[in-house]
Amino acid sequence: MLKSRLALIPIAVLALSSCGSESKKQIGPGTGDPDMENPAAYFGVEACQCYEYESPGSAFKLGVAVERVNNQYSPDHKDMNVVVYRQNGTTILSYVVDPTEPDLLLHRVFSGEGGQDEWRLEPGLPLFRWPMQKAFRTSDTDAHAFQNGVEQEDLAEKLDYSVIYTKEQVVASRTGSETETFDAIKVDYFGTPWDEQSRWFVPKVGVVKLELGNSANRSTWTLKKIRTLKDCPSVNPKDACGL
What we know:
This is Lipoprotein. By secondary structure, the chain is an all-beta fold. It contains one helix and 17 strands. It has one domain. The chain has a 15-stranded antiparallel beta sheet that branches. It is globular.
């Protein structure tokens, strides 16, 4: 049964401008700033990417794949991408996202067995608002809960939503062997009807560290490798990422 608080993990992406810069130059859409020439690449949600993570002491494997949306997720958003979280090949969470200028918009959240629990967000929720130099707050998005495609009207609400950023360094790997020290931004979310977890993001790389679970059972995962899905850009690629 769908609960009013879902234990979810965050999509593996966050926008960031030059850290700590107080430059007064004009930035953003239409200004020719190179960060926004390709929002999907900047936010880390280009199709066909696989992010593999490891957690100390865990026997599970975690893979986060960026795939194309299909009818299973949202036929109304076929031009968008879906970020799919899998543990040992089993899907545990999916986000339908749209990388725009300057926001990364979240439209659908699927969790539970077979993705039976769903949140539909209207209009799309700005997960990240570029440039990420300041925290932001919005109350424009309505969240509608569904279970097996049936709306749970008693759980619908207008979100009073905010995001806070903190600079932190993270040691992780993109190659599976050599490690790097990244200047990352830790992102914390407030005001979602699901339990949105923290993640640590590096622009044009992606999420280098993330959390899974809820406050009673939470684990931390660090990036081990980034690679390209083998049979992408097909829908539902056989290379599930994280196997």
